[in-house]
Amino acid sequence: MLKALTLVDVQIANYPFTTISANQAVGYVITECACKRLGAKCNPQNSKCVDGKRWIPVKLLDVAGLVPGAHAGKGLGNQFLDDLRQADGLIHVLDCSGLTDAEGKQRPADNPWDPDENIKVLESEVDEWLFGIIQKNVEKVENLARMKKTPIARLLAEKLSGLGITEDDIKNAMKQSDISSREFATILRRESKPIIIAANKIDLPSAQLNFEKIKERHDHVIPTSAESELALREAAEHGLVKYTPGNRNFGIISDKINEKQMEALDFIQKNVLGKYGSTGIQNALNALVFDMLQYIVVYPVASINKLCDTKGNVLPDAHLVRKGTTLKEFAYKVHSDMADKFIGGLNLEKKKVGAEYELHDGDVIEILFSR
Length: 371
Known about the structure:
Strand content: 15-25%
CATH class of the largest domain: Alpha Beta
Number of helices: 13
CATH superfamily of the largest domain: P-loop containing nucleotide triphosphate hydrolases
């Protein structure tokens, strides 16, 4: 999955704990570039534009799988859960074929595993881990809240800030459950660490059957074939095909493709792209970032008239920010000096907008500040 998203050189093997130390790489979410609707020729600096699509970098961390009892230290559980602290969201790469069990061990074709059990393991282990951390802090927080007359959610957020959990996450969870319950930990996990399920190996018949069952039981399930995506990405890298991740088609651009390679490409077109509209790999990352985490794309410029930075680069930077981010908050993200000397902003209509203006997806904005 990681190699299919990034083409980094990582170890790939079909046995438990192939991944021991986390693999870190940069992937890209892909969206329509503002240059397309504005009729401008862009010159990206912090991202890239390919055929009118803006590729925006995101940090990816491929970590060791979880086994039952991971929250108590079994397998590489402690390491996985420690890595989890850094995550905004998770893509659960699920072997949808049923040919491996919850511990990653091979299963015979006549006695397959129910992949739904793997989903339960991941969710349960993360819930138990969060529950244990909350239990260690909840009594102290409740006492402190009474003494200082401070909201519990604020104090608990301070304790859990290292897990990427916000005060809003805690408030939302408190509306639905008691803070000392396991249910609270489950709700908090859903709020702060949303999971999208990549139902992988969808090119296999058994995976296709299991996928239909899984999508009936769970939300946010995307059929994927990492092997197919990797084959297409590598073929594109070597100039054999023209392919954009997430597309339902590819074009052959070389006469050097041998018979075996052509058979593989035909298989991918028929059994993956033709059936599911894509390999699902790029869709999974995009869906996590844009749909579940609610990120939008904003383009800051130094001149709204010329759509460029101070060096003349047109639409140079594309930033991912959470939906609801204000212009003043965005100014801090771009540069602290801009925020400290903030005056306002100009949108594409050349209208002035203030500090509390909520940014929209695709906004191109000039931040005004005293120099």
